[in-house]
Amino acid sequence: MQTALVVIDVQNGFISEHTAHVVPIVAALVETCVAAKVDVVFTRFVNQPGSAFERLLGWRELQTTPATDIVQELADSAQYVVDKHQYSAFTTEFDALAGRRGWKRVLLCGIATEACVLKTAIDAFERGVTPLVVQDACASDGGRAAHDAGLLVLGRVVGASQLIDSSAVQAGLSTNEWS
What we know:
With 179 residues, this protein is of the alpha/beta class. It has helices at 22-35, 52-57, 92-101, 113-126, 144-159, 166-174; strands at residues 3-8, 39-45, 80-84, 105-111, 130-139, 163-164. The protein has one domain (3-174): Rossmann fold, CATH 3.40.50. Strands 3-2-1-4-5-6 form a six-stranded parallel beta sheet, with helices on both faces.
């Protein structure tokens, strides 16, 4: 399978009034991808004590469970879980997994559009992997303005045609275009 669904940081500590609406959309995407035998990977951000997030941003959240846990609605759905201490999903472990599985395309969804989704999309782009950002399955804990800013930048740096809606995922999978 050349395509993977990457569910970025849909964790208890990132769920708020700004992000909760994407959980059922992500759950439906996961179900669609599992049925199509597409690899499903979840990332889990863990903010380590002394990190740049703590030192430079003064942000000390998501250091322990239950904040770092994947939300209950999705917890049993992951084929792979990659822990990360950075914005991007492209850790050493993720890179190795992508290489072993032969991914040429990643469907990206999750939290936060302007940070972790954006950085993962750019890193995929720079590795020659096509990033498709499922924009209605992404949100920002910083609110709608941060989400929209992320989409604006993504359209410029990875291409507006790489911003899709969840309905396009079903179409892409059903035509075997993404197999």
